[in-house]
Amino acid sequence: MNLIVNGREHEITSPPLTPLLHVLREELEITSPKAGCQQGGCGTCTVLVDGEPRRSCLTAIATVDGASITTLEGLGEAESLSPVQAAFHELYAAQCGFCTPGMVVASTALLERVGGPVSREDVLEALGGHYCRCTGYVKIVDAVMAASRGEVGEVRDMPSPEDGEPDVTIKGSPA
Ligand code: FES
Ligand code: FES
Fold this sequence. Notes:
binds FE2/S2 (inorganic) cluster, alpha+beta, Ubiquitin-like (UB roll), globular, 5 strands, 5-stranded mixed β-sheet, DNA polymerase, domain 1
């Protein structure tokens, strides 16, 4: 079987009923789709299959043979975030980030489908079934609406991937 993931073609060796989520994470080492509930209920594993949002935890790879898959990694780079990624960054729409890949991917599909400003109801419908345990939804919805209106410009203060993790020492923390 073959998959085109973020524009690159891959021959897949996992068995045909393996969930796409596991193929992406374990075989291809593309880790933005997160393994949350793994039952179709939380949305954090969402990727685009031929442009449509799909729960990768419930998608056997045999059903998407030859398809074009887009994950968060395929939407932008640290140096050039996509409009939705930039809006999430600028409007503080992520906290722990576990739900963020699915939120951003599904929101990107919404914006591409509508092709202009989206309403709060549009966003709530597109992100129905995407669960966030820490940021809350107000900032997430605001970010998607701002991105749809083109209100967020280029983000220039992202750290380079070569910078590594910052040194953070919290007094009393075991870390
Ligand atoms: S991990 Fe797929 S919907 Fe929760
Ligand atoms: S940012 Fe933590 S679950 Fe959404």
